Amino acid sequence: MASGDTLAGLVDYRASLLSSKVCKFKSSETASAVTYSPNQIKGYGFPGDRYYTSKHLKQDSAAVFMEELLRSKINLYNLDGAFYVEKEGLGLEQLVIDFKEYYNEEGVLFKSRTNQHIGTLNKYMQDCIQMIEKIERVKMTQSSLIRLIKDYNECWPGQPVVVFKEAKPWLAAEVGVALGVSHTSLSFSATDEAYLHLENSDFSTSTYPVAGLMLNLRSPRVSKYTSLQLETHYFKTSYNDQNSYDWFGTNYANEMELNISAVKVNMAVRHEFSSKALQPYANVGMALNFYQDREIKHTQYVKRTAESTPEVRIKDDSEFITNRQTGIIAGAGFVYNFLKSKVSAELRYEYGLDIHNHQRVNSLNTYLSSNTGTVSFTTGYYF
Question: At 133, is the secondary structure helix, strand, or coil?
Answer without folding.
Answer: helix
